[in-house]
């Protein structure tokens, strides 16, 4: 009896340097920031900006930051959690499936991993970009690159993509479970801090930008009324689901956006401004969620827990506590399994 072909599942994370050295971090930043969906300006200008300014100025400093979160045995936290998530999903799905992991930037690279999958003559490949909220710079970039690679194959299996899972029930369950490890009422305020994007990228994805520009309707409801793939609206959808699950009152929390790069307008309010306003208002203890990340990484381990915490304390605050990312929670793996099988609620 002929053995049935396996079904492929491809998890794709953003990426991480191979090592916390200036050279490797520079290589990572170069590949990442030269993506036309990440810095969406003309190639010539982007090339000058990235190779002539950003990478030379940031590589060494970023390498020093990576060293502070790098584990001697397991290396990059993002890589460690991603590999474990891959292994746990493989165990959950069984032998009928082949679960692979790739990074959009650096290693294991999409060309290498997809090359291996091509040789397996899989029945199908389901691609899961590991970003709960859709953005052209993340999920869109992954889908774009996968299609660019696969279109050169002679045998192309059935390909499908998960483009967002911002309010998946099990995802929300895990975030709420991790939050409940803290005494929520002991904090003066709760922040939901999402990765930011340039405002122009929101405008580009608005299908009605001529008659209904982004400024004319609220981001909090855009997903339901105008554009289901508005990144900001998906962030608010995630927040609403968590808030409802935890029973938070409107005055207990707010939404903000971190990781701004450059001087062009990004999504507001900025997390740094929110910290300043809260400190000025006399708030001392903050709890921060970062629901854009499915694994702890440099943005959660350093940017929030070190940089923002130090900034808040310098303004008179006392504590910035962090809700752990999804990481290796079995319910998160069950959520991934449902996404892989297209069985999500």
From TrEMBL:
Give the pathway annotation.
Answer: Porphyrin-containing compound metabolism; protoheme biosynthesis; protoheme from protoporphyrin-IX: step 1/1
GO CC annotations, alphabetized = cytoplasm
The function of this protein is: Catalyzes the ferrous insertion into protoporphyrin IX.
Keyword DNA repair set for record: no
Q: Which PROSITE patterns match?
A: FERROCHELATASE (PS00534)
| Pfam families found in the cross-reference section | Ferrochelatase
Location(s), subcellular: Cytoplasm
Q: What class of enzyme is it?
A: lyase
Q: Which InterPro entries match?
A: Ferrochelatase, Ferrochelatase_AS, Ferrochelatase_C, Ferrochelatase_N
* Entry GO MF terms: ferrochelatase activity; metal ion binding
Keyword Cytoplasm set for record:
yes
Where Fe(2+) is bound, by residue? 195, 299
The UniProt keyword set, sorted, is: Cytoplasm, Heme biosynthesis, Iron, Lyase, Metal-binding, Porphyrin biosynthesis
This chain belongs to the protein called Ferrochelatase
